[in-house]
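Notes from the 1:1 (GR / supervisor)

We went over the backlog. Supervisor wanted to see one worked example end to end before approving the batch request, so GR pasted a single chain during the call. The sequence is below; no edits were made to it. Supervisor asked that the structure be written out right there so they could see what the output format looks like.
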Amino acid sequence: MQEFDHIQSIWDTHKVEVKISSDEMLKQAKKEVNGIRLKSLLNLAGMALSFIAITSIWTFYDVQSWTTHAGLTIIITSIGVYTFLMYQGHKLIANNDFTIHPKAFLESLKLYQINRFSLYNKLYWIYTIALSIGLTLCFFEMLERLEVWIQYSLVLFSLGWVIFCSSLVRKVAMKREKERIALLIEKFERLSTQFKD
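Structure output shown during the call:
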């Protein structure tokens, strides 16, 4: 038993330093940066498709009520503004090459992190409220043509969907992206210290 305790004490005092080469770390960072860029582009493409879909509904659907026009205007405007803000964030990480200007890219990555935090917190609620108001205004005309049980089902589904996305989905996405960007910033900071040595 004493031998085991002795081995255990040696094991506890022994520290193993894991050294990853700067090339390996750079490969990992490059892969993660490309993943963030791709996700950002896919988000922009999804928002652009939403913009086109809502605009085409307005173009091809015979809208009679002023409330529907007002609702679609609010929805299209909020999607357009949110897409523009997402594009501004995308430019922060898309324009800089981290292999040529690592310090500039690190600063852009930190700005991107702040930008995403703002999008997921303050601006998200403005976007959600605007979409909800626009959808409510559109429902006045669109739902009156449907049966009562379908009206209630659509309203409940829409309300549930907004609550689901605003609570669970937003928090999970925000946490995952925050951890991913923080880890990437940490890697770039370690890389910059390795290159100084």
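Supervisor's comment: The chain has one domain: 34-196.
Batch request approved.
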